[in-house]
Each structure stands twice: as C-alpha cells, then as structure tokens.
Amino acid sequence: MTVKLEIPVIDLAGSDGAEREKVCKEVVRAAEEWGFFQVINHGVDESLMKKALDVYTEFFHSPLEEKMKVVIPEDSIEGWKHPKLTQTSDYLQHVSSAYSAEYVANSWIPATPRYTKNWPPSPSCLRPTMIDFVNAGTGLHEKLLRMMAEGIGLESDAFVKYFADPRVSIRANFYPLKTDGSFVGSLDPHSDISGTTLLTDFVDGLEVKKDETWVRVHPLPSGFVVNVGDLVEILSNGRFKSVLHRGCPNESKERLSVACFYMPNDNAVLAPLKELLVDGQQTKYKAVRFDEYFESFLANGNNLKGRIQTLKVED
Ligand SMILES: O=C(O)CCC(=O)C(=O)O
Ligand SMILES: [Fe+2]
Asked: Can you give the residue ranges of the Fe2OG dioxygenase domain (predicted)?
C-alpha cells in the first residue's frame, strides 16, 4: 500500500487560549519535520484572501501595455516579468534563470518610494487590497514566529525581535491553463529567502520536497500554506527546515499563487540564537547581514540550496 503523504494541517482556533501550548508544539513539529504546513482558523479574513487572488488575476489578464507600466526596471527586482515578453536585466539574470513563470513581485512594507513606485496601478483596487492583505499577513507571520519560539521553550519574541521594521513582499505567480502550443512556465525548485512565507492558493500545483520525494500540496480554501524560510532555519540553528519546493501549473485549471514573504530590514544580522547553543550545541551557520544575504541571492540565484550552504560551518 502506498501512503499518500500530505503536509500537516494545523487548526489555530485554540491558539490564543488554553490550547496554545499544544498548538505551539504542532507548529514546531511541522516546522521540524516538513518545513511546510497549512493553517486554518488563522484569523485572516477569508474574503480578503479571495480579494488578493482576484486583484492579481485581473492584473495578469490585463492588456500588455498595463503590465508594461510596472515591468521590472534595469536596476531592480520589483515589478512584473514575463519570461518570453520582457527582457531580463543583468541584475535579475541569476534569479530569473531559475524562475520561469510569469510573475509580479513588490515589497509593500515599508511603503517607501523605492518600493511604491513600482506597485501596480491597476486594477484600481489592487493597492488598497494588498495594503490590507500584507498588514493582516504580517500579524499572522508574527504570531507563527512567536508560537515557534514558545514551542521550543524560548521567550515568545526570540525570533520576531529580528524582524523589527520588517520588509514584507508579495510575489504573485501566474500559471495559465495550457492550451496547445501556448507557453506556461513553472517555478524551479528553490527555498525562500524569507523568515517565513504565507502562500494563498486555491488550486493544486505547489510541490514540496520531503526526503527524496515531491509531495503535492492540496490547498484548503480558507487556509494558508506556511513555510519556513532560510532565515528561520539560520536563527533556529537548523532545527526548523527551509525546504525545497516548486510551483507547477495545474493540468485542468488556471492557477495563481500569492506568496507573502516576511523579511527583516536590511541591517538585521541573522545568526543562530545564543539560547539554542547550550549543552554542547555548536553553531551550524555563520552570521550574515540580511542585505548581504539578499545580494548573494541576486548574484547566485536560487540554485537549489546553494545559498544557505555558503553559511554552513564545517563540522
Ligand atoms: O506557485 C507556487 O506554488 C510556489 C510559489 C513560491 O514558492 C514562491 O513564490 O516562492
Ligand atoms: Fe517559494
């Protein structure tokens, strides 16, 4: 008999009351064993999640001239990119070689001119929707990081304190339904550069590496798919896993995924938490400043787990 593997589903309904300790342990187990899980009853309004998918669906279906207004400029990674219809700048070359689906990526927090200038102007409800969405998403990221810390016996803010003045980015990936001869990209295997990532996605297509197999995720309509990013792997000294995953088109439906990345500010220095280096535990990662880690991502791309390997301390 083959056992069908599924990423864990965690109900957060009791997580602010008497059940908190139990739910924290479930989050910890999922972050250790899978690096991926789904959460339900997470407190983010389901209609806001649906609206976020709707505004991006409208964006991807808008005429080329509309999308070209926010095409990724030469010196940036923020904006819209289509692997066949847009140029790839030198700056983006390494990153985009591993990424071949049509996408739009923007940082929404902080809302400084560096980022706001390439926010899609249409549809007109995209900006207000996404501002609400990233604020709600930020609350959930913080909550999950607190639960991970509490679940391993640390102070609740042991992880979140590294994310003061965070950068919160959205990457919407579009996988149209393949009709004969038409181009449909996919997102090559990668780990995320974030602390944590929340994925909103109602159609199957995400696949997660578990040991040596690719496991397909079946997203629950009102749930978020959560994954541990490289930065939480580093902070937890490898206890929580930032695992490879890939985005595939669906065989019978158009598919859209909206990833919300929770990242620290540029100056944050990430290293395994001192509280975890007890009882002979050695540090497994070198300290790195977030802007430098991000630059290494731009310079080397997402070549599987290559990026985080550069920080590994030899045994
Ligand atoms: O589209 C997907 O299923 C994966 C999205 C993803 O992993 C990302 O945007 O980082
Ligand atoms: Fe990802």
From this structure: 166-264
